[in-house]
# Entry
Amino acid sequence: MRRGDDRWFRIGTGAFAALVLLVVAGIGFELTRQSLLSIEKFGFGFWKGRVWDPVSGDFGALPFIWGTLYSAILALLLSTPIALGIAVFISELSPRALRQPLAYLTELLAAIPSIVYGLWGIFVLVPIIRKLEVMLGAKPALGVGMLSAAVILAIMVVPLTSSVAREILKNVPSTQREAAYALGATRWEAIKVAIGFGRTGIIGAVMLGFGRALGETMAVTMVIGNNPQITASLFKPQYTMAAVIANEFTEAADELYLHALIEIGLLLFIITIAINLLSRLLVRKVTA
Amino acid sequence: MRDPENASMKKLTIIAALLLAVLGCKPNETTTTTTNAATGATIQINGAGATFPYPIYSKWFDEYHTSHPNVQINYQSIGSGGGIKQLSAETVFFGATDGPMNDEQLKNAPAPILHFPTVLGGVVPIYNIPGVTSQLRFSGPTLANIYLGRITKWNDAAIAKENPGVSLPATDIAVVHRSDGSGTTYIFCDFLSKTSPDYKAKVGVNTSVSWPVGVGAKGNEGVTGLVQQTPGAIGYVELIYALQNKIPFAAVQNKSGAFITASLDSVTAAAAGVAMPDDFRVSITDSDAKDAYPIASFTWMLLYQSPKDKERAKILVDFLKWALTDGQKDATALHYAPLPKSVVDKELQAIAKIQL
# Structure
């Protein structure tokens, strides 16, 4: 290959990389421009406002921020142990013949459209949760609410986290495990060494799942109950940012209302970036 | 994200391209030659707006295309808000909405816009109370108090008084409403606000409102699903949806005190019982007519008073005249309530205001 080709190759790929930056900056700019009315009227009060009233034109995002973070964190708590368990079993413990089919099946789960998860949620999960609520004496026992949303999110996130974590574990050099065995480690200890070696990537896998949970819209709105309230209750209906945009965008004819909805999108954008930065910092701390 | 229209336009382009490809493969097909033979080129007219009238509009446009093969009217059901926005931005030739444009929206539009009611729809309360099989009856204030969270038990005195002879259980009421912005919510809240001053002050009227209680479900199908699954639930859906899916619904008390079960006739009667303003922007909930069902509304088509494209304007006016007269016969088969004759007559006069 001639030296000139090298240079053009670098410029070409560099341009594509710059495109990513440009798109992110463009999204941020456009979201801000389209929500100016709401930003001017409510300022930072929008972040902590608890009222969402399209009739009187009073908008605040806090219940939606709460619902989004709460459901995503719950989903993360439920899904991470399961996803890591699947990844470890497939890459370390599973009989060779089972490995490919298991990996294939988990990836298949990731390919199911979210509306299908949502329908399954309405017809299977929600009645089960309702029975649980009746047993526990929660009133009124609706079935739809935070717990249903968290469980469905967890199920959607598991295949994503586990397949990335499995790839990471597969790429841990076998010398790591061999060294552990050479030092007299048990199988469990050798696996711990492998996980330790791949921790950066595994945290990345978990954060990828978190990002998915934050932005998931259709399946969540079908089971969360869509009531903007701030409560720690697992059984009460709540609301998420992505869900309110999807629900109210088409019929929002009033300018301020529309701008407030787009500002919710802007907040979601900012929160997603902030969480990604935080996870980078976390990864750096763990690796250091 | 800002332009749902753009996305759908793109889809349309792709579909059109595919169609062309298919037609191109069969050059001997007669369809291509007939359109060309008529007047040369097909005239496309684009509109966008409410989802509620979409089934009847697409039937009308289809029938009109059959009788006028050189005219193709396309309709995107992107929601009333979207329809008003697209028309104001002049990206579509006509709009459609389930709630009339307010004064501010009309003022912000680049030119005067006219409203034309096309058909009527109703909204009905549905419920699921284990052990209760007979039809329930509600007054406006009782429904309002349920949706305000003031009536919380099915055996509440107010409900019992309106339903003598029905043994109501002491179970909690689970309130279900729409989560997506919808003309159905607009009409329901409009009726509750007219019959309950408290509801008007605390909730008000819009396509989405700040609900004091309850859970939100997406679409008529979401509300129905949740109500049918949850013992003790109450919800509201479009009459057309309840009729098509044979879902039992409650009777509602009208202004003259009678409990009316919604039907196409009682919805049409609601429109006859209201003094019709010249711009047709009128709410017909809680109608004065004795046999009217009280939770009813028009759905409107929106047109510029002085359209820039006179050729398309002439075609659309011709279409509108046909839809208001012969076209009304299609309404009942699709469970839409047809317009009363008085409204049709007034509209036929108003059409003359469009400058061709």
Q: What stands out?
A: DSSP finds 14 helices and eleven strands in chain B. The longest strand of chain B covers residues 113-128. The mean pLDDT of chain B is 88. The interface with chain A takes residues 1-2, 4, 78-82, 84-85, 105, 172-174, 179-183, 203-211, 214-218, 222, 225-226, 229-230, 232 of chain B (CB under 8 Å).
